[in-house]
Amino acid sequence: MKKHFLIALLSILSLNLVNAQQLKSPNGETTLSFLLKADGIPTYQLSYRSKEVIRTSKLGLELKNDKKSLLNDFVITDTKNSSFDENWTPVWGEVKTIRNHYNEMAITLNQKETNRQMIIRFRLYDEGLGFRYEFPSQKNLTYFVVKEEKTQFAMAGDHTAYWIAGDYDTQEYDYTTSKLSEIRVLNAKAITANLSQKSFSSTGVQTSLMMKTANGLYINLHEAALINYPCMHLNLDDKNMVFESWLTPDVNGDKGYIQAPFNTPWRTIMVSDDAREILASKMIYNLNEPNKIKDTSWIKPVKYVGVWWEMITGKSSWAYTDDYPSVQLGITDYSKAKPNGKHGANTDNVKKYIDFAAANGFDGVLVEGWNVGWEDWYGNSKDYVFDFVTPYPDFKLQEIRDYAKSKGVKMIMHHETSSSVRNYERHIDTAYKFMKANGYDAVKSGYVGNILPRGENHYSQWIINHYQYAVEKAAEYKIMVNAHEAIRPTGIARTYPNLIGNESARGTEYQAFGGSKPNHVTILPFTRLQGGPMDYTPGIFEMDISKLNPSNTSHVNATLANQLALYLTMYSPLQMAADLPENYNRFADAFQFIKDVAVDWDDSKYIEAEPGEFITVARKAKGTGKWFLGSVNGDNSRTSNISLDFLEAGKKYTATIYADAKEAHYKTNPQAYTIRKVVVTSKSKLAQFCAAGGGYAISFLENK
Amino acid sequence: MKKHFLIALLSILSLNLVNAQQLKSPNGETTLSFLLKADGIPTYQLSYRSKEVIRTSKLGLELKNDKKSLLNDFVITDTKNSSFDENWTPVWGEVKTIRNHYNEMAITLNQKETNRQMIIRFRLYDEGLGFRYEFPSQKNLTYFVVKEEKTQFAMAGDHTAYWIAGDYDTQEYDYTTSKLSEIRVLNAKAITANLSQKSFSSTGVQTSLMMKTANGLYINLHEAALINYPCMHLNLDDKNMVFESWLTPDVNGDKGYIQAPFNTPWRTIMVSDDAREILASKMIYNLNEPNKIKDTSWIKPVKYVGVWWEMITGKSSWAYTDDYPSVQLGITDYSKAKPNGKHGANTDNVKKYIDFAAANGFDGVLVEGWNVGWEDWYGNSKDYVFDFVTPYPDFKLQEIRDYAKSKGVKMIMHHETSSSVRNYERHIDTAYKFMKANGYDAVKSGYVGNILPRGENHYSQWIINHYQYAVEKAAEYKIMVNAHEAIRPTGIARTYPNLIGNESARGTEYQAFGGSKPNHVTILPFTRLQGGPMDYTPGIFEMDISKLNPSNTSHVNATLANQLALYLTMYSPLQMAADLPENYNRFADAFQFIKDVAVDWDDSKYIEAEPGEFITVARKAKGTGKWFLGSVNGDNSRTSNISLDFLEAGKKYTATIYADAKEAHYKTNPQAYTIRKVVVTSKSKLAQFCAAGGGYAISFLENK
After folding, report:
1. Which parts of the sequence belong to the Glycosyl-hydrolase 97 catalytic domain (chains A, B) (predicted)?
2. Count of Cβ atoms closer than 10 Å to residue B359 Cβ
3. What pTM value is reported for the model?
């Protein structure tokens, strides 16, 4: 018997070997293997230049209240291989043209007992893998509920990870750099207070997750095209170093209501031995559907200022009055309320920002706190919290609109929803129409606090559907969206390029809430920015917040030169100059860089990159051919040694270098900077000092 | 010490007696007492003609996560007494003018520890009491969450009750008649299957709850003006016969998110020793706010037929095709689908109904199943289930619209939401605009199945807000609403008279789903109809459902004469003739009554009434002066002995009496009826046989 069993086992093993199907990336250096294990369990494995990236990992989904989960009992009924190579032109971006080049393998599985079909589609790029589950239209699988997706990502070692804790409601955490095995003990410390948060596991982390292996690989796990499905977190089995998907549940703990035909989002694994390739990859965008907006002429990158930082620092307020214990829209009579004297969105102040924007070439002015309801907007689970159309008495909408128009400046709308999602949807058409009637082409939306409907999470399927609804509806109105506290992007801006920005990470505002880690901005491009641009709101020149608000002792953990570099390193078609005009006026020479820098690009060259340490990138401005360069540095000072070989050969440029002074330090001396001009060519080398939490920025002007 | 304690106790007791505050109804026969008990607990007591109606009962609310609930520690800081007497004219109704006459006592309580204010406002009518909690705007009570409302209704005995089981999602139950003490054992049997249901307690019952006492009182407990608050159920402490409010929770178990200033709905206790006065009472309407719709010219009572009963019986289908395992709006190509051959809402069939309506003087034609999505509309928790604007290929919208217009018939829209509430709100503006563009003035909406957002209940605050939103928005579009499966009405049609109907009870459809109790219609006017009209869809002439659909063996437990009487006894400004045209053509002489009967009234006289047994009412048609009379009977045959003294003295009338034949019986011989004409005056008496489950209907034509 035993012998027979062994023989049987060997046959299975050899059968498995026979069954294993391989796919190679276009350059042949990345290899995917797919294998049905015993009992028909689908597995995959990924390697890069003969190094194991993903050890054999299971695939499948656990269903709720169903006769059988989609985990095993499968046979392969079809395998289709194909190749794809195409260039496409983004509406805005880091580069003019994006190449989408992959080899594909689609494996059709049939579950024997249920006679259900599931396709696993793999797309293998030179820089990584995307795969998804597909459920074709079929009689035996129409509607089903996902109890948990059981996609594994088995790591080949105890890698270094740059992680934030898994959370159903926020990504606004500082990153922790640790070994995978240390996540469990460091988790509690990694979770800092947030206005809405729900963690679920001491080994849960969020994507995009960046890792580095002992043998020199950079690995990134994320997802692409997250539509009508819950956000995927990763939970680590830290005995075996196996990550498994952990979807965001709805209020009942369910993790996805599916109707076939349906495709899940793509699960992505980027890999390279060069960290710069992770930053340069467009794989996430490539895995998304092409642009669905026919006329994109109204989608334009935006550099803007706004009445915002003064509220964030506590210098002024969103609310108009302190008179009422609570307010009710349509009932509270603001005309009779006593102004609190520190309302930021008053007409005079807004005009000051408009003047500043006009004088310095900014496209737009954002104003928060312009509309009634801010007196009790947060923390009350208030349903009818904003109407998105009624200004405070001191915000003269028409006067401001006309003034901005006369100055050639676009007003940017603000829709804080307070996460009262039904209320926003009830008003969204009226609100968008109001925007268009008053010349607003872009909206910053916000989802602060706990979601209504109560019990839902920021990242559950139901609410992800809402964010998508808001973006698609905005497209109908030709409105650009910059959604804060919404789901972190997964490349959907390819399909809906009116989604010009998101927050969905710890932004600059935290520098006024106690500060962020100095190396935060050397990690974000590897993680949060993989899915799309961030409205990071850089450009803070006054690091001592008490200068703005004596009762706020927060310190901005960055040098002034670092803040300039962010306009390059934190790629976004939407860039704010977040500080107050008076602070820019104090440092007019440094401010010149923010005035000059472009926000849309024909080309980008990642020159140096190491997560947590430094990022240096040069970009060629759209249309003008001007080059700009930014370099941000982590916790320790260093010298950045780079070549300027991205410049056009044979030409001379005047490089204006905005850099940390020798004595600069993010904490003790953040405003110590130097500005120097040098003539350079593509053969020039640069050795540039970078302070701790510092960096440098360069504008290149061709000498003609 | 003991002696001192006793003296102290006596002082408190006497103080309490001194503190007791009394309010008498306008006619002096109903008395309310309010008393703060020891520890500042508010209580009330109600009596009628010296009989105890409500024994001393506690008042207050338990709060969630709050420093102190609103249950005790109160002192009275103010008492305001006033009287009110006014006549108002409803847009539609049982009578031309309604008198709102009450004495009021508003008691302001202050909670000592928290310094919070709560007002309890009592309005005492001759036929009962309404009271509510009011939370004025105040610093120490702004936002709070109700854990449970703790309003007691202490019964003075083990009364007979006509009840349906408490349920968060449905009221579509048959009534059980039992002693209060028997509710617990009968509860499980009382709960029959429903597409969405959630019971919560074996002694939980719904309002409006009708009771009869051993000493001859009729008592009704309900609520009025349920807006922005959960529906109140009642849970019985059956040792002490004390009902306590049991609010419908949200998905988290919370029972009301409140922002002060706020008033709860009114809790109502109707009482009389004459059951007819309960039916005639307009107290629930009177406790609602006056009409908020300025121009009401577009609100018109409606008598209608529809493509509906044929689907309910299974003779035809809502769905167009059986081709697809599931459908996706905007993706499924219906033009390529094979019709299933039994789709009711096809153009020819609709035209047949339009012809029938035009030929017989009906105002409107309802068509269900006209729009795409019915193939998988129920039970799949499907979000985007209907779009409310796209017809099936065989429903030629424009052709039907034009045809109906040429025939002088109004089409009635149908919006089944499948309880996908967000989806309905997303489409509601477009759907209402579509209605107006195509000549629809009224909509029947439906909320079948479990609510989305998932976990919410049909009667929770969040969803009650939705029903109200739909009604108010419809008013903006001048659309009349008839909402099925929505919250049972609480008199809101006074404020929004475009709410011309609701279902919210076990309607005629259940006669095709296995049948209802024969005496069901002798209870509904005492219960469900207290809050507003019901779209009961009477007028079934063919009781053997297998004649329509051989595979449906259900039997309509009513005689044909009973079905005619319902047009009087089930007051509604919206009345359907629910059966198929061919069945009406078979009984053209009886159908004449449905053609003749009015749907709006200048006066109504309840002549006989006993819950569960019989109801006889005469009504004077609006404008025409014609009288109609209806009488429904319960389980046992009887003779109805009435006087026709409601007729105008000195005039002669030809009464056409549609009655049960002697051999008639709801089960064995439901179609045995007689029609006779007699000349009558206001001095005439009538002794009319009523079969079990039977009744009679009379039209009076003045002899001139």
Report:
1. 308-505
2. 12
3. 0.95
